[in-house]
């Protein structure tokens, strides 16, 4: 099989692309996915290095995430307005999953997180975020490639049942009433049924939609399951779902500072979240901070130079000629990581 175009995946077209008969194939600025490359091959076009540009890391993350979010919005709205419970898996596999996998392969947690920060499209961007970050966490947990592929799809679809919830509830500014909250919780069972009834998915993926709000101590919903009855995929997605939700601006509240989120997650290890999965996530997340600049709660900017094994959430930070040991300076914390 001709693979001459394959190394252009993830690069951006400079100009509009036409085949030899002048038929329009792709517009300028397209970020090339495996599906685009397949289309280009069908038109018997051989790309040249002068046809594309290699984006810098931040630009690639932003364009890939924005494109995935737009595709997810189209998929979600197609379901909402068609009242269809069958998911468009071809669109998902062609327009979303390849970029989620490409972004996660870069293994730059904070560069990725910066691109994922919600604009005014949290409902859709959150699904992309959970897909990407769950894939990263799956790699850190050393999942087999075939399991990792299943997890990526399951995580990206975890909230698909929300398309059966009235839009005015999803976008409500302020707390939900008890009646609205009971209706919102039904997105788990709706999602389970939608994925279960779609060709090309499996039961494990459907269970992630059903169980991602279950908690180890039985305090979650819809069934209040204890940890041993919750699947590993669901436990992974639960950790990432909580992290991205808390670090994102929402209709009804601002994002929480990073250190508050991590401390809350560490506290939740003892009851609500799977302890092993949570610790891997938090440890890898903190190790990813090494060498990065961070903003502290007092407004100062410094660089993390050491993660302390006895207190990983409170590293050693270099600020100018000073060194701040956050394990001793308990009133200080990290607000955000500044991507390199």
UniProtKB/TrEMBL annotation:
CDD domains: HDc (cd00077). It comes from Paenibacillus monticola. Residues 101-297 form the HD-GYP domain. This is HD domain-containing protein. SMART domains: HDc.
């Amino acid at each position: 099989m001709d693979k001459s175009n394959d190394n252009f995946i993830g690069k951006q077209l400079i100009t509009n692309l036409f085949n030899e008969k002048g038929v329009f194939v792709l517009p300028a600025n397209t970020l090339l996915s495996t599906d685009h490359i397949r289309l280009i091959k069908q038109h018997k076009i051989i790309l040249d290095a002068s046809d594309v540009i290699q984006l810098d890391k931040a630009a690639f993350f932003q364009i890939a995430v924005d494109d995935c979010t737009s595709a997810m919005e189209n998929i979600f709205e197609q379901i909402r307005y068609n009242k269809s419970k069958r998911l468009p898996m071809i669109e998902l596999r062609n327009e979303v999953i390849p970029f989620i996998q490409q972004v996660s392969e870069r293994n730059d947690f904070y560069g990725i997180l910066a691109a994922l920060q919600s604009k005014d499209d949290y409902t859709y961007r959150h699904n992309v975020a959970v897909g990407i970050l769950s894939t990263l966490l799956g790699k850190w947990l050393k999942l087999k490639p075939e399991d990792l592929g299943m997890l990526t799809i399951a995580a990206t679809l975890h909230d698909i049942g929300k398309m059966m919830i009235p839009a005015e509830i999803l976008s409500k500014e302020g707390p939900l009433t008890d009646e609205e909250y009971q209706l919102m919780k039904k997105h788990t069972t709706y999602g389970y049924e939608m994925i279960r009834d779609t060709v090309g998915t499996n039961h494990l993926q459907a269970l992630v939609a059903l169980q991602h709000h279950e908690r180890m101590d039985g305090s979650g919903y819809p069934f209040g399951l204890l940890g041993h009855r919750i699947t590993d995929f669901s436990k992974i997605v639960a950790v990432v779902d909580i992290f991205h939700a808390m670090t994102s601006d929402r209709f009804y509240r601002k994002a929480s500072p990073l250190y508050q989120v991590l401390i809350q997650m560490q506290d939740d290890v003892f009851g609500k979240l799977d302890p092993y999965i949570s610790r891997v996530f938090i440890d890898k997340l903190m190790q990813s901070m090494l060498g990065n600049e961070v903003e502290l709660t007092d407004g100062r900017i410094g660089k993390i130079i050491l993660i302390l094994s006895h207190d990983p959430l409170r590293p050693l930070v270099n600020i100018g000629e000073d060194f701040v040991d956050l394990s001793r300076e308990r009133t200080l914390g990290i607000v955000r990581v500044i991507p390199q």
